[in-house]
Amino acid sequence: MANPVRTRIKICGITNQQDLRLVVAAGADALGFVFYPPSPRYVRPESASELIASMPPFVTSVGLFVNTSVDELRAIVERAPVQLLQFHGDETPEQCHQLAAAVNRPFVRAFRVKTDTSPQDLLECEAQYRAASPLFQGLLLDTFVDSFGGSGKVFDWSLIPKELAPRVVLSGGLSVQNATDAVVRVRPYAVDISSGVELSKGIKDQLKVQAFIDAVRLADQTP
Q: What is this structure's pTM?
């Protein structure tokens, strides 16, 4: 029997209207906007505002933030009203709650998986964030690297507890080549990709975007 769940797909690092249109047309469920200036995929709030205004209904806009302040977050969300926050820095559960509550938005928290991360670490982290904030919506699992933002590297998917997998966003090193296998093995709620579907940093590749989404849908049809 085919897997009855439809894996949600987020394409992160949207920087221009052409990419936004092609990603939406390909069937993405969510678009990510990076508000972290050191990132090559950084988008200014003024530009993000125009992009978000052109999005169709029922496609979710997600803002990625790294160690931002409440004032900075307020200013950005006022200008670019993303629907969901994604925290990628050193924020504690309490800080994430304070930030999210300041702009009244739900959030996901990136957990950067290390080689010595245990399944119990992931379960305890989720429990901490859930206890700290009613605005917490789940963990996004990425690979640990020294820099912030996406890693572009795969971690050991077997570390993800079976009971946690249906609630997580799987990220880190996903590609057209490994997307089907990743979804079949992990069965996450959603997947998140950026560099794996690019022509160059911040510019999406239409063929890769469509191939990635097709690969995830193939996994959804795989028993």
A: 0.95
